[in-house]
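Final report, closing paragraph on structural work. Over the funding period we assembled a curated collection of sequence-structure pairs, and we close with a single example.
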Amino acid sequence: MNKYEEIYQTMKKAAKFALIKTIPIFLGYLFLGIAFGLLLQKSGLSVFWAFLISTLVYAGSMQFALVGILTGGLSYVTTAVMTLFINSRHAFYGLTFIERFKEMRKTYPYMVFSLTDETYSLLCSMARPADFTDREWKAATFFTAFFDQCYWIAGSVLGALMGELITFDTTGIDFAMTSLFTVIFVEQWQSTKCHIPALMGLAAAAVSLAILGPDNFILPAMLAICVMLVAMRGRLAKEVA
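Its predicted structure, as stored:
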């Protein structure tokens, strides 16, 4: 077997493994992507924007928020701060993959870019098969992230196309991401005994919403949550322990 045949077999084996592992992500991303594409098209933006945003932004909840930003004319500062807070969680759970991604060398920047919540969960749970070499395992890791983004792009483009070709009422379609995070919240609640952070988040959001209204409550609520978490980090560490 020459060098090119060896590379082909490595890629084929890794891609097949990743394809099977990402089937659950495919089912979720396809429909969420369709919801995003429909929302984008109904906001007056074309299929091109659906492809471009899902390719270059690829940030789930931030993409849904971006629709309002693009059509509402928010300032650059507000957009930057909102993006920082919505995606700040990536800075924390991404730390666990720094060394693993660095070993992937040329694909390292893409792995950092493509680490979504779902891809992170999948990579954490994936066990390396005994017959996989280091190269095959690194390739499988790359294909897992790559396939997940392909699913999201496909769903977004399909949703935008459906919005152009089919006329129907899409009221409430943007609730798809809210539903996803509701499910994630319930799963996290059930999987941990310490509910203090969740209760603080709910309290901060409720108070901020009551005072500032639905258009202005997000950033103050996030700031309040961060302050409370830092202030109570000692107690929370004891509760988790």
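The radius of gyration is 20 Å. The mean pLDDT is 83. We thank the funder for supporting this effort.
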